[in-house]
Prior knowledge:
It is a single chain. The protein is mainly α and 435 residues long. The chain folds into three domains: 3-89, Orthogonal Bundle (Fumarase C, Chain B, domain 1), CATH 1.10.275.10; 96-190 and 209-346, Fumarase C, Chain A, domain 2, CATH 1.20.200.10; 353-414. It has helices at residues 8-13, 16-36, 45-50, 56-66, 69-78, 96-132, 152-177, 194-204, 219-245, 274-287, 290-294, 306-334, 340-347, 356-365, 370-387, 391-401, 408-414, 425-433; strands at residues 137-142, 145-151, 179-180, 207-208, 253-254, 337-338. The strands form three sheets. A two-stranded antiparallel ribbon has the order 1-2. The longest helix is centred in the N-terminal third of the chain and has 37 residues, at 96-132. It is elongated.
Amino acid sequence: MIGRYTLPEMGRVWSEAHKYELWCKVEVLVLEAHAVAGRVPAEVVEPVRAAPAPTPEAVAEVEAVTQHDVIAFLTAWADRTEPRSAAAYVHFGMTSSDLLDTALACQLVEATDILLAKADRLVAALRELGLAHRDTLRVGRTHGIHGEPTVFGHRVADLAFGMARCRDRLRAARADVAVAKISGAVGTYSNIDPSVERYVAEKLGLTPAPVATQVVLRDGIAAWVAALAGIATLCEAVALEVRHGQRTEVRELSEPFGRGQKGSSAMPHKKNPIMSERICGLARIVRAQYVPVLEGVPLWHERDISHSSTERVALPDAATAVDYLLHLTTRLVTGLVVDRARMLANLDATGGLVYTSAVLLELVESGLSREDAYGVTQAAAMDTWQTGVPFRETLRRHASERGLELDEARLDEVSRPERYVERLGPVFDRLAALR
Protein backbone atom coordinates (compact mmCIF):
# COMPACT_ATOMS: atom_id res chain seq x y z
CA MET A 1 0.00 0.00 0.00
CA ILE A 2 1.30 3.46 -0.85
CA GLY A 3 2.45 5.69 1.98
CA ARG A 4 -0.52 8.04 1.60
CA TYR A 5 -2.84 5.41 3.09
CA THR A 6 -0.42 3.65 5.45
CA LEU A 7 -0.64 4.42 9.15
CA PRO A 8 2.58 3.91 11.15
CA GLU A 9 1.56 1.05 13.43
CA MET A 10 0.22 -1.11 10.61
CA GLY A 11 3.07 -0.08 8.35
CA ARG A 12 5.55 -1.47 10.85
CA VAL A 13 3.75 -4.85 10.99
CA TRP A 14 4.33 -5.31 7.27
CA SER A 15 7.77 -3.74 7.04
CA GLU A 16 10.70 -5.81 5.81
CA ALA A 17 12.61 -5.02 8.99
CA HIS A 18 9.83 -6.40 11.21
CA LYS A 19 9.45 -9.46 9.03
CA TYR A 20 13.10 -10.32 9.57
CA GLU A 21 12.72 -9.73 13.30
CA LEU A 22 9.92 -12.30 13.31
CA TRP A 23 11.97 -14.70 11.22
CA CYS A 24 14.75 -14.45 13.78
CA LYS A 25 12.27 -15.02 16.59
CA VAL A 26 10.86 -18.17 14.98
CA GLU A 27 14.30 -19.57 14.22
CA VAL A 28 15.50 -18.95 17.78
CA LEU A 29 12.45 -20.70 19.22
CA VAL A 30 13.03 -23.72 16.98
CA LEU A 31 16.64 -23.77 18.11
CA GLU A 32 15.57 -23.56 21.75
CA ALA A 33 13.21 -26.49 21.30
CA HIS A 34 15.94 -28.58 19.74
CA ALA A 35 18.32 -27.66 22.57
CA VAL A 36 15.76 -28.55 25.24
CA ALA A 37 15.34 -31.93 23.60
CA GLY A 38 19.12 -32.38 23.36
CA ARG A 39 19.16 -32.47 19.58
CA VAL A 40 21.55 -29.52 19.16
CA PRO A 41 24.26 -28.18 21.49
CA ALA A 42 22.72 -25.93 24.14
CA GLU A 43 25.56 -23.43 23.86
CA VAL A 44 24.57 -22.35 20.32
CA VAL A 45 21.27 -20.81 21.41
CA GLU A 46 22.49 -17.62 23.09
CA PRO A 47 24.91 -16.54 20.33
CA VAL A 48 22.14 -16.94 17.79
CA ARG A 49 19.63 -15.11 20.01
CA ALA A 50 22.10 -12.25 20.50
CA ALA A 51 22.75 -11.79 16.80
CA PRO A 52 20.82 -8.76 15.52
CA ALA A 53 18.32 -9.27 12.74
CA PRO A 54 19.84 -8.61 9.32
CA THR A 55 18.84 -5.41 7.60
CA PRO A 56 16.59 -5.53 4.54
CA GLU A 57 19.47 -4.13 2.53
CA ALA A 58 21.82 -6.91 3.63
CA VAL A 59 19.26 -9.60 2.76
CA ALA A 60 18.53 -8.00 -0.60
CA GLU A 61 22.22 -7.99 -1.48
CA VAL A 62 22.50 -11.74 -0.90
CA GLU A 63 19.15 -12.48 -2.56
CA ALA A 64 20.33 -10.77 -5.72
CA VAL A 65 22.71 -13.73 -6.06
CA THR A 66 20.77 -16.62 -4.46
CA GLN A 67 17.31 -15.70 -5.83
CA HIS A 68 15.95 -17.23 -2.62
CA ASP A 69 14.83 -14.95 0.17
CA VAL A 70 15.06 -17.43 3.07
CA ILE A 71 18.58 -18.55 2.14
CA ALA A 72 19.56 -14.90 1.74
CA PHE A 73 18.15 -14.14 5.21
CA LEU A 74 19.96 -17.08 6.80
CA THR A 75 23.25 -16.07 5.18
CA ALA A 76 22.95 -12.42 6.18
CA TRP A 77 21.98 -13.38 9.72
CA ALA A 78 24.83 -15.87 10.02
CA ASP A 79 27.20 -13.06 9.09
CA ARG A 80 26.07 -11.28 12.28
CA THR A 81 26.39 -14.29 14.57
CA GLU A 82 29.42 -14.61 16.85
CA PRO A 83 30.85 -17.17 16.77
CA ARG A 84 29.56 -17.81 13.29
CA SER A 85 29.78 -21.55 13.87
CA ALA A 86 26.73 -21.29 16.13
CA ALA A 87 24.65 -20.46 13.07
CA ALA A 88 25.23 -23.95 11.70
CA TYR A 89 22.25 -25.26 13.69
CA VAL A 90 19.86 -22.50 12.63
CA HIS A 91 16.98 -23.80 10.45
CA PHE A 92 17.82 -27.32 11.63
CA GLY A 93 15.35 -29.79 10.09
CA MET A 94 13.18 -27.00 8.71
CA THR A 95 11.93 -26.06 5.29
CA SER A 96 11.45 -22.48 4.17
CA SER A 97 7.69 -22.56 4.62
CA ASP A 98 8.05 -23.57 8.27
CA LEU A 99 9.60 -20.16 8.77
CA LEU A 100 7.46 -18.25 6.29
CA ASP A 101 4.04 -19.54 7.33
CA THR A 102 4.71 -19.31 11.05
CA ALA A 103 6.10 -15.77 10.84
CA LEU A 104 3.23 -14.78 8.54
CA ALA A 105 0.80 -16.06 11.15
CA CYS A 106 2.42 -13.71 13.66
CA GLN A 107 2.03 -10.78 11.27
CA LEU A 108 -1.59 -11.64 10.59
CA VAL A 109 -2.34 -11.82 14.31
CA GLU A 110 -0.58 -8.52 14.98
CA ALA A 111 -2.47 -6.85 12.14
CA THR A 112 -5.76 -8.34 13.30
CA ASP A 113 -5.36 -7.04 16.83
CA ILE A 114 -4.74 -3.53 15.52
CA LEU A 115 -7.83 -3.78 13.31
CA LEU A 116 -10.05 -5.19 16.04
CA ALA A 117 -9.20 -2.32 18.36
CA LYS A 118 -10.10 0.19 15.65
CA ALA A 119 -13.25 -1.72 14.74
CA ASP A 120 -14.31 -1.51 18.39
CA ARG A 121 -13.87 2.25 18.26
CA LEU A 122 -15.93 2.54 15.09
CA VAL A 123 -18.73 0.39 16.53
CA ALA A 124 -18.76 2.64 19.61
CA ALA A 125 -18.84 5.79 17.46
CA LEU A 126 -21.76 4.47 15.42
CA ARG A 127 -23.57 3.39 18.59
CA GLU A 128 -23.26 6.86 20.10
CA LEU A 129 -24.32 8.57 16.88
CA GLY A 130 -27.37 6.32 16.60
CA LEU A 131 -28.42 6.94 20.19
CA ALA A 132 -27.93 10.69 19.80
CA HIS A 133 -30.39 10.67 16.89
CA ARG A 134 -33.01 8.21 18.11
CA ASP A 135 -35.59 11.03 17.91
CA THR A 136 -34.26 12.84 14.83
CA LEU A 137 -37.09 12.49 12.33
CA ARG A 138 -36.31 12.15 8.65
CA VAL A 139 -37.82 10.49 5.62
CA GLY A 140 -36.91 6.89 4.88
CA ARG A 141 -35.89 6.17 1.32
CA THR A 142 -36.33 3.03 -0.73
CA HIS A 143 -34.92 2.90 -4.27
CA GLY A 144 -33.78 6.46 -3.55
CA ILE A 145 -37.43 7.59 -3.37
CA HIS A 146 -39.16 8.95 -0.27
CA GLY A 147 -40.88 6.17 1.68
CA GLU A 148 -42.22 6.45 5.24
CA PRO A 149 -40.98 8.59 8.12
CA THR A 150 -38.19 7.15 10.21
CA VAL A 151 -35.46 8.49 12.47
CA PHE A 152 -31.83 8.96 11.49
CA GLY A 153 -30.70 6.91 14.47
CA HIS A 154 -32.48 3.87 13.05
CA ARG A 155 -30.31 3.87 9.93
CA VAL A 156 -27.18 4.42 11.99
CA ALA A 157 -28.16 1.55 14.30
CA ASP A 158 -28.35 -0.75 11.29
CA LEU A 159 -24.81 0.24 10.30
CA ALA A 160 -23.56 -0.13 13.87
CA PHE A 161 -24.83 -3.69 14.18
CA GLY A 162 -23.47 -4.49 10.72
CA MET A 163 -20.03 -3.24 11.65
CA ALA A 164 -20.14 -5.22 14.90
CA ARG A 165 -20.95 -8.40 12.97
CA CYS A 166 -18.10 -7.77 10.53
CA ARG A 167 -15.75 -7.16 13.45
CA ASP A 168 -16.84 -10.43 15.02
CA ARG A 169 -16.16 -12.27 11.76
CA LEU A 170 -12.64 -10.87 11.82
CA ARG A 171 -12.29 -12.00 15.42
CA ALA A 172 -13.25 -15.52 14.33
CA ALA A 173 -10.87 -15.33 11.37
CA ARG A 174 -8.03 -14.48 13.76
CA ALA A 175 -8.16 -18.06 15.00
CA ASP A 176 -8.06 -19.32 11.40
CA VAL A 177 -4.73 -17.61 10.72
CA ALA A 178 -3.06 -17.99 14.13
CA VAL A 179 -1.48 -21.28 13.08
CA ALA A 180 2.15 -22.41 13.40
CA LYS A 181 3.63 -24.88 10.95
CA ILE A 182 7.00 -26.51 11.77
CA SER A 183 6.78 -29.92 10.11
CA GLY A 184 9.46 -30.08 7.46
CA ALA A 185 9.74 -30.35 3.71
CA VAL A 186 6.37 -31.94 2.92
CA GLY A 187 4.85 -31.74 6.38
CA THR A 188 5.72 -35.25 7.57
CA TYR A 189 8.03 -34.22 10.44
CA SER A 190 10.73 -36.32 8.76
CA ASN A 191 13.62 -34.29 10.19
CA ILE A 192 11.92 -32.41 13.01
CA ASP A 193 9.96 -33.67 15.98
CA PRO A 194 6.33 -32.53 16.43
CA SER A 195 7.32 -31.33 19.92
CA VAL A 196 9.26 -28.50 18.25
CA GLU A 197 6.11 -27.27 16.51
CA ARG A 198 4.16 -27.41 19.77
CA TYR A 199 6.91 -25.52 21.61
CA VAL A 200 7.14 -22.76 19.01
CA ALA A 201 3.36 -22.41 18.74
CA GLU A 202 2.93 -22.04 22.48
CA LYS A 203 5.67 -19.42 22.74
CA LEU A 204 4.15 -17.40 19.91
CA GLY A 205 0.53 -17.71 21.08
CA LEU A 206 -0.37 -19.76 18.01
CA THR A 207 -2.00 -23.15 17.47
CA PRO A 208 -0.07 -26.00 15.83
CA ALA A 209 -1.47 -26.82 12.41
CA PRO A 210 -3.65 -29.94 12.72
CA VAL A 211 -2.16 -31.03 9.40
CA ALA A 212 0.01 -29.31 6.82
CA THR A 213 1.93 -30.23 3.71
CA GLN A 214 4.84 -27.98 2.90
CA VAL A 215 2.47 -25.09 3.59
CA VAL A 216 -0.63 -24.45 5.64
CA LEU A 217 -3.71 -24.70 3.40
CA ARG A 218 -4.78 -21.15 2.49
CA ASP A 219 -8.49 -21.39 3.29
CA GLY A 220 -7.95 -19.70 6.66
CA ILE A 221 -6.06 -16.81 5.10
CA ALA A 222 -8.79 -16.47 2.48
CA ALA A 223 -11.39 -16.30 5.25
CA TRP A 224 -9.33 -13.59 6.91
CA VAL A 225 -9.25 -11.48 3.74
CA ALA A 226 -12.98 -12.05 3.31
CA ALA A 227 -13.52 -10.66 6.81
CA LEU A 228 -11.45 -7.61 5.91
CA ALA A 229 -13.51 -7.14 2.76
CA GLY A 230 -16.66 -7.23 4.88
CA ILE A 231 -15.35 -4.48 7.15
CA ALA A 232 -14.27 -2.38 4.19
CA THR A 233 -17.69 -2.74 2.61
CA LEU A 234 -19.45 -1.69 5.82
CA CYS A 235 -17.20 1.37 5.90
CA GLU A 236 -18.34 2.04 2.35
CA ALA A 237 -21.99 1.71 3.41
CA VAL A 238 -21.44 4.40 6.05
CA ALA A 239 -19.69 6.62 3.54
CA LEU A 240 -22.35 6.12 0.90
CA GLU A 241 -25.02 7.27 3.36
CA VAL A 242 -23.05 10.46 3.94
CA ARG A 243 -22.40 11.00 0.23
CA HIS A 244 -26.11 10.91 -0.49
CA GLY A 245 -26.92 13.06 2.52
CA GLN A 246 -24.43 15.73 1.45
CA ARG A 247 -25.87 16.16 -2.06
CA THR A 248 -27.08 19.72 -2.63
CA GLU A 249 -30.64 18.53 -3.20
CA VAL A 250 -30.63 16.64 0.12
CA ARG A 251 -28.27 18.53 2.48
CA GLU A 252 -29.13 16.46 5.55
CA LEU A 253 -25.57 15.36 6.35
CA SER A 254 -22.13 16.75 5.76
CA GLU A 255 -18.58 15.76 6.48
CA PRO A 256 -16.48 17.86 8.83
CA PHE A 257 -14.93 20.73 6.87
CA GLY A 258 -11.83 22.12 8.54
CA ARG A 259 -10.62 25.68 8.74
CA GLY A 260 -8.60 26.39 5.62
CA GLN A 261 -9.91 23.35 3.78
CA LYS A 262 -10.65 23.79 0.08
CA GLY A 263 -13.22 21.89 -1.95
CA SER A 264 -12.34 22.76 -5.53
CA SER A 265 -9.55 24.49 -7.38
CA ALA A 266 -12.12 26.11 -9.69
CA MET A 267 -15.28 26.56 -7.58
CA PRO A 268 -14.69 28.18 -4.19
CA HIS A 269 -18.19 27.36 -2.94
CA LYS A 270 -17.60 23.61 -3.02
CA LYS A 271 -17.69 21.37 0.07
CA ASN A 272 -17.23 17.90 -1.38
CA PRO A 273 -17.62 14.58 0.50
CA ILE A 274 -13.98 13.67 -0.14
CA MET A 275 -13.55 11.49 2.94
CA SER A 276 -16.56 9.41 2.01
CA GLU A 277 -15.47 9.11 -1.61
CA ARG A 278 -12.00 8.01 -0.51
CA ILE A 279 -13.57 5.36 1.72
CA CYS A 280 -15.68 4.04 -1.15
CA GLY A 281 -12.68 3.88 -3.45
CA LEU A 282 -10.40 2.08 -1.01
CA ALA A 283 -13.09 -0.47 -0.19
CA ARG A 284 -12.81 -1.62 -3.80
CA ILE A 285 -9.09 -2.20 -3.33
CA VAL A 286 -9.75 -4.46 -0.32
CA ARG A 287 -12.44 -6.49 -2.06
CA ALA A 288 -10.14 -6.94 -5.04
CA GLN A 289 -7.66 -8.87 -2.87
CA TYR A 290 -10.08 -11.65 -1.98
CA VAL A 291 -10.27 -13.67 -5.19
CA PRO A 292 -6.49 -13.80 -5.79
CA VAL A 293 -5.96 -15.00 -2.21
CA LEU A 294 -8.80 -17.52 -2.48
CA GLU A 295 -7.16 -18.89 -5.61
CA GLY A 296 -4.13 -19.72 -3.47
CA VAL A 297 -6.07 -22.53 -1.77
CA PRO A 298 -5.67 -25.05 -4.63
CA LEU A 299 -1.93 -25.63 -5.09
CA TRP A 300 -0.03 -28.39 -6.89
CA HIS A 301 0.33 -31.43 -4.66
CA GLU A 302 2.19 -30.61 -1.41
CA ARG A 303 2.67 -26.98 -2.60
CA ASP A 304 3.74 -24.69 -5.35
CA ILE A 305 4.73 -21.05 -5.07
CA SER A 306 1.86 -19.41 -6.97
CA HIS A 307 0.25 -18.17 -3.76
CA SER A 308 3.42 -16.46 -2.53
CA SER A 309 3.62 -13.48 -4.87
CA THR A 310 -0.10 -12.83 -4.45
CA GLU A 311 0.09 -12.81 -0.67
CA ARG A 312 3.12 -10.51 -0.59
CA VAL A 313 0.93 -7.85 -2.19
CA ALA A 314 -2.61 -8.75 -1.16
CA LEU A 315 -2.23 -9.34 2.57
CA PRO A 316 -0.32 -6.16 3.48
CA ASP A 317 -2.48 -4.08 1.13
CA ALA A 318 -5.76 -5.45 2.49
CA ALA A 319 -4.73 -5.02 6.13
CA THR A 320 -3.23 -1.57 5.59
CA ALA A 321 -6.21 -0.32 3.61
CA VAL A 322 -8.71 -1.58 6.20
CA ASP A 323 -6.64 0.00 8.97
CA TYR A 324 -6.87 3.33 7.16
CA LEU A 325 -10.56 2.81 6.35
CA LEU A 326 -11.45 2.20 10.00
CA HIS A 327 -9.46 5.26 11.04
CA LEU A 328 -11.06 7.49 8.40
CA THR A 329 -14.61 6.17 8.89
CA THR A 330 -14.37 6.79 12.63
CA ARG A 331 -13.26 10.37 11.91
CA LEU A 332 -16.19 10.75 9.54
CA VAL A 333 -18.73 9.44 12.06
CA THR A 334 -17.46 11.43 15.04
CA GLY A 335 -17.27 14.65 13.01
CA LEU A 336 -20.51 14.21 11.07
CA VAL A 337 -22.76 17.27 10.85
CA VAL A 338 -26.47 16.36 11.01
CA ASP A 339 -29.02 18.98 9.91
CA ARG A 340 -32.21 18.13 11.78
CA ALA A 341 -34.15 21.05 10.32
CA ARG A 342 -33.31 20.00 6.80
CA MET A 343 -34.40 16.46 7.57
CA LEU A 344 -37.80 17.74 8.69
CA ALA A 345 -38.07 19.93 5.61
CA ASN A 346 -37.33 16.96 3.34
CA LEU A 347 -39.87 14.90 5.25
CA ASP A 348 -42.54 17.41 4.23
CA ALA A 349 -41.19 17.99 0.71
CA THR A 350 -43.70 15.73 -1.06
CA GLY A 351 -46.79 17.27 0.46
CA GLY A 352 -47.74 14.32 2.62
CA LEU A 353 -47.08 11.44 0.20
CA VAL A 354 -44.98 9.75 2.86
CA TYR A 355 -48.20 8.88 4.73
CA THR A 356 -49.90 6.88 1.95
CA SER A 357 -49.24 3.50 3.58
CA ALA A 358 -51.19 4.48 6.68
CA VAL A 359 -53.96 6.10 4.61
CA LEU A 360 -54.33 2.89 2.63
CA LEU A 361 -54.85 0.90 5.83
CA GLU A 362 -57.31 3.45 7.19
CA LEU A 363 -59.45 3.15 4.07
CA VAL A 364 -59.37 -0.64 4.38
CA GLU A 365 -60.47 -0.40 8.00
CA SER A 366 -63.28 1.92 6.94
CA GLY A 367 -64.73 -0.92 4.87
CA LEU A 368 -63.13 -0.67 1.43
CA SER A 369 -61.49 -3.63 -0.22
CA ARG A 370 -57.73 -3.39 -0.36
CA GLU A 371 -57.87 -3.09 -4.14
CA ASP A 372 -60.30 -0.16 -4.01
CA ALA A 373 -58.42 1.52 -1.14
CA TYR A 374 -55.16 1.19 -3.06
CA GLY A 375 -56.79 2.62 -6.17
CA VAL A 376 -58.07 5.74 -4.39
CA THR A 377 -54.82 6.32 -2.54
CA GLN A 378 -52.60 5.80 -5.58
CA ALA A 379 -54.76 8.02 -7.81
CA ALA A 380 -54.54 10.85 -5.26
CA ALA A 381 -50.80 10.29 -4.86
CA MET A 382 -50.14 10.42 -8.61
CA ASP A 383 -52.17 13.62 -8.75
CA THR A 384 -49.94 15.13 -6.06
CA TRP A 385 -46.77 14.01 -7.88
CA GLN A 386 -47.94 15.71 -11.06
CA THR A 387 -49.49 18.92 -9.69
CA GLY A 388 -47.74 19.54 -6.40
CA VAL A 389 -51.10 19.92 -4.68
CA PRO A 390 -50.86 18.56 -1.08
CA PHE A 391 -51.83 14.91 -0.78
CA ARG A 392 -54.66 15.51 1.67
CA GLU A 393 -56.38 17.78 -0.83
CA THR A 394 -56.06 15.37 -3.74
CA LEU A 395 -57.18 12.54 -1.46
CA ARG A 396 -60.35 14.44 -0.49
CA ARG A 397 -61.18 15.04 -4.14
CA HIS A 398 -60.63 11.46 -5.27
CA ALA A 399 -62.55 10.12 -2.27
CA SER A 400 -65.42 12.50 -2.93
CA GLU A 401 -65.61 11.41 -6.58
CA ARG A 402 -66.16 7.86 -5.33
CA GLY A 403 -68.66 8.88 -2.69
CA LEU A 404 -66.31 8.21 0.21
CA GLU A 405 -66.30 10.25 3.41
CA LEU A 406 -62.91 10.65 5.08
CA ASP A 407 -62.37 10.63 8.83
CA GLU A 408 -60.19 13.75 9.04
CA ALA A 409 -59.31 13.21 12.70
CA ARG A 410 -58.03 9.73 11.97
CA LEU A 411 -56.07 10.97 8.98
CA ASP A 412 -54.49 13.62 11.18
CA GLU A 413 -53.46 10.90 13.61
CA VAL A 414 -51.95 8.54 11.03
CA SER A 415 -50.14 11.44 9.38
CA ARG A 416 -48.07 12.21 12.47
CA PRO A 417 -44.46 11.22 11.67
CA GLU A 418 -43.84 10.32 15.32
CA ARG A 419 -46.45 7.57 15.02
CA TYR A 420 -44.24 5.69 12.56
CA VAL A 421 -41.35 5.28 14.98
CA GLU A 422 -43.18 4.61 18.26
CA ARG A 423 -42.16 0.94 18.30
CA LEU A 424 -38.43 1.46 17.81
CA GLY A 425 -37.66 1.61 21.53
CA PRO A 426 -36.37 -1.98 21.75
CA VAL A 427 -34.06 -1.35 18.79
CA PHE A 428 -32.37 1.47 20.63
CA ASP A 429 -32.23 -0.57 23.82
CA ARG A 430 -30.30 -3.19 21.88
CA LEU A 431 -28.13 -0.51 20.35
CA ALA A 432 -27.28 0.90 23.79
CA ALA A 433 -26.13 -2.58 24.86
CA LEU A 434 -23.98 -3.12 21.76
CA ARG A 435 -20.28 -3.53 22.46
